[in-house]
Structure formats: structure tokens, C-alpha cells
Amino acid sequence: MEKAFHIIIEGRVTGVGFRYLAMDYAEQFPSLKGYIRNAGYGQVEAVVQGEPDDVEQMVQWLRRGPDSARVDRFQANPIPLSDALDGFSIR
């Protein structure tokens, strides 16, 4: 059964390729759906939905980010599944 999370990441996460590297990482997991976007200076928002193992891998990657980033605050909240998501994208 799929699960989904709404995630807010704060720190040095804009201007360091965070979204693009997250998208590259997400491509490893065919069940993943959702998006990642800048939500303001120093803040990135993501929605991740898919099979539990794939979602957990993605959430763990987002928690630390790429080497160029610094995650100071990470918040992941479960959300209802959405039929509107198709693939993983940058918004």
C-alpha cells in the first residue's frame, strides 16, 4: 500500500542544485510520484508518494540532501494519497 508525505526542508537548500539532484535520485524508484519546489529563500517543499520502501529511501535522501546543501530543519508529515500525482517533477 502506498504512502505519502509533505516535506519542508530548510537550510542551504536553494541555489545548490537540491531540486535537480532530488529529481535525479527519485528516478531510481519507479513507484515515486510527487514534486519538489522552492518555497522561499532557504526553503524547499516536496510531496513524495509511492511504495513504502521507495518513499523511505527518498525521505532519507531529502533529510540530508546533496553534498552542496546543508539541511538545518526537516519536517515530514503524512498526507492522504493523491490520484492527481503522475511521476516526480520539479515545480
Describe what you observe in this structure.
The chain starts with a strand and ends with a strand. The longest helix is centred in the middle third of the chain and has 13 residues, at 52-64. The protein has a single domain (3-90), classed as Alpha-Beta Plaits. A five-stranded mixed β-sheet has the order 4-1-3-2-5, with helices on one face. 24% of the residues lie in helices and 42% in strands. With 91 residues, the protein is α+β, with helices and mostly antiparallel strands. The mean pLDDT is 96. The protein has two helices and five strands; from the N terminus they run E-H-E-E-H-E-E. A hairpin with a 2-residue loop joins strand 2 and strand 3.
Query: Which of globular, elongated, flat, extended, rod-shaped describes the shape?
Result: globular
Please describe the biggest sheet, giving its number of strands, its sense, and whether it closes into a barrel.
5 strands, mixed
Our count of domains comes out at: 1
Tally the beta strands: 5
Q: Roughly what fraction of the amino acids lie in strands?
A: 35-45%
Number of helices: 2
Q: What is the helix content?
A: 10-25%
The overall pLDDT average reads 96
Question: How big is the Rg?
Answer: 12 Å
